[in-house]
Every structure is written in structure tokens, then in C-alpha cells.
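Study this one:
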Amino acid sequence: MNNNRDYQKQPLEILSFGGGVQSTAMIVMIKEGILEKPDIVIHSDTGSEMPFTEPIIEWAEDVCKEMEIPFVIVKSERGSLHEDYMKRGTIPMIGIRSCTFNFKIIPLRRHIRSIVGNGKGKVLGRCWLGITTDESRRKIESDVQWLENSFPLLDQIPTSRQECFDYLKKYNLNVKKSGCFCCPYQGVKGFKKLRKEYPDLFQICLDMEEEFQKRRDSPNTSLAPTIRTLKSLDMDSIFTYFGMEKIPENESTCDSSGGCFL
């Protein structure tokens, strides 16, 4: 990084890399010369990422090394997200974005600050967020003056999520939606898939719920907001509890704010 650079005149260009479809497609587009190179790529590791994200992060790191773009992984000083929740006897909940702020935004901004310093309200950096044309409602402005958000897949090269998949196919990259294994936004369907594919991680979710319910005396509060507890993923008990023929399984989305893109 150029220590003599005046970031007020030439803000630092940062690609915020989550390891999902859009941010990985941006790496591909940079490699192919479709997007210009950023100054740095930063991945905020919550310590609770889905396992399938790890090889994508490794791939991106290797590609950035080839392109001579610094690739930095930052972490919260509080350790991993799920362990922090267990320690405090609470769980992530829809509508409460403290997990994003503490484990994504703060570590990323801390590292950017270490490069650009303080600027008394001046823009010192631009954070590239991977939001596509079909998700333009997720576009959010920065809540700090010194760091503004940028949307290359909306404003520079208008790109849809499907077009991102098309870019990834050329490199045989099997990229899935990134996120934490204990995220309530994945919904019942996501937790069922987690139970089937990663039973060890599902057990951690059960332990998180149990610790929360024990400490808060709240037996009907779940990581999956449409059911009372992950233990009741048994279909018969769910149908009996809700008096329903079918429990809603649609994936919950974070479309309302897109905070985890930071």
C-alpha cells in the first residue's frame, strides 16, 4: 500500500469479498479485465461461515495473488460469531443486525482505517459491494462519511445474478450463497439442509438454542423464526404444534438491508 497517497484526493478502492456468487463474480470480472483492479480485497471471516465457502476464499486469494492485489482476511476481536453468542447466552435474530456490525463491518472498517487514517469527514475509501440488477433494492448507503459504498454490478457493469453464475461456470466454480451456518435468515429449509449435510454444525445450533432458552427462560424462541425450536424439525410434531398441513419453508432473505454484504 502506498503510504504517500492522499486518500482524500484518491480514495482507497476496496472490494468487500463475502465468498458468495456476486463478490466471486467480481473477482472473475477483474481477472478478465471487465472491472478495474481495486486496491485491496478484504474478507471479514465471522468464524461461523458455511464450509463450502472456504475453497472459494482460497481460490479468490490465489487469483488476487496472481493479479498482485492484496487479499486480507480480517476477524472480530470477539472471536467466532457462534462462540460469542454461546458465551453470552443469546442467539442471532431476524431484524437485529448486531452480528453483521460486530463480525463483518467493524473488522473491515478497522483494517481500512489502519490504511487510510482519519480524514475529518472526507471520503477516504470506497467499498465495493456485490449487488446485482435484480437485487437493486438491497442497495444501501454508508452510515459513515469517510467510507462510501460502491456498486460495480449496478453502476459500472450492470449485471444480473444469473450473469454472475455464467461468469463462474467458465472457471468451474461451484459458488453458493454465503452466510453463517447459524443465520436465522436461512429459514426452516436452510436448517433442514444443514441438519442433513453438516450435522456437527446443526448440533452447535441446537446447543445455542438450548443455552439461550435456559438462560432467558424462553422455551419457544428458535434460530428458525417460524418454529418454536430446531428440535421440532420433526414434521409430525411441527404440524401438530401449528395445526397446519404444511409448514412454510421458503428461504428467508436479507433483501431488506443487505447488511452482510459489508
Notes: The chain has a mean pLDDT of 88. The two ends are 22 Å apart (CA to CA). The chain has nine helices and five strands.
